Amino acid sequence: MEYLSKKSIITIALILLAGAFYFYYNSMQSDGMLIALHSNQDTHTNPEEDSNADDSTYDSNENALEDPSDDSNKMIYVDIDGAVNNPGVFMVEQGTRLYVLIDAAGGLKSNADTKYLNRADVVLDKQKIYIPEIDEFYESPIIEEPTIKSPETDQKVNINRASQKELESLPGIGEVLALRIIDYRNGKRFETIEEIMNVSGIASGKFADMKELITVN
Q1: Is the pLDDT of residue 32 over 70?
Q2: Which of 73, 70, 90, 94 shows the shortest CA–CA distance to 81?
Q3: Can you tell me the distance from the alpha carbon of 30 to that of 171, in angstroms, rounded to the nearest whole number?
Q4: How far apart are alpha carbons 133 and 85 in whole angstroms?
Q5: Which residues contact 159 (CB under 8 A, 6 or more apart)?
Q6: CA 190 to chain centre
Q7: 116 or 138: which leads in pLDDT
Q8: pTM to 2 decimal places
Q9: How many Å apart are CA 177 and CA 205, to the nearest integer?
C-alpha cells in the first residue's frame, strides 16, 4: 500500500511537471507570435500616415510648380501726349491696352484724330504715344533722313501701289501721312500725281519736294 502511494505520488508529480512544461511552451509560443506581429506592424506605415505623406508630397510638388518669377503684374511706364486731357507719363501693368491708358490720361479731347488710332493695341514699356488733333500735320517722332531718289537712275514711287515703308521714303512723308495716302487711294485711285495734295497734310510745298519722285502708273 505504501508502495502504491509512493508510485501514485510520483505519477502525479510527473503529470504536473508535464502540464507545467506544456503550459510554459504554449506561453512562449504565444509571446513569440505577439512579438512577431508587433514587429510586422512596425515595418508597415499606417495607411492614414501614408495618405498624409502623399498629400504632403503632392502639396510640395504643386508649390514647386509655381513660378516665383512670374511677371504678369510687372509695371511699365508709357508716355502719352497730344489730344488727351491729361498728357504725361503713366505707370500701368504690362499688357495694358491703349484704351485703358487713354482713360487714365483723362480721355480724348473732342478734336482728337482717331482715324488711325487702334485703341486695342497693347502699350509697351518706355513707349511714346502721340495722338494728333483733327487736320493737324504730324509726322512720326522717329525722324530719319529721307532717301532722295534720282528720277534718272531710280524707279519712281507709285503712290497707287507703294507700301507704307516706300511712301515714308519720300521727303516729308512720315508714318501718319503714309497711312493717309493709303487710306485715300483705297477709296479713290490717284489719276494724277497732283491729286496727292488732296490728302490732308500735303500742301503745294511738300508736293514740290516729291513730284519728281512719284508716279501714278
Answers
A1: no
A2: 90
A3: 108
A4: 12
A5: 167, 181, 185, 190, 193, 196, 214, 215, 216
A6: 44
A7: 116
A8: 0.35
A9: 15
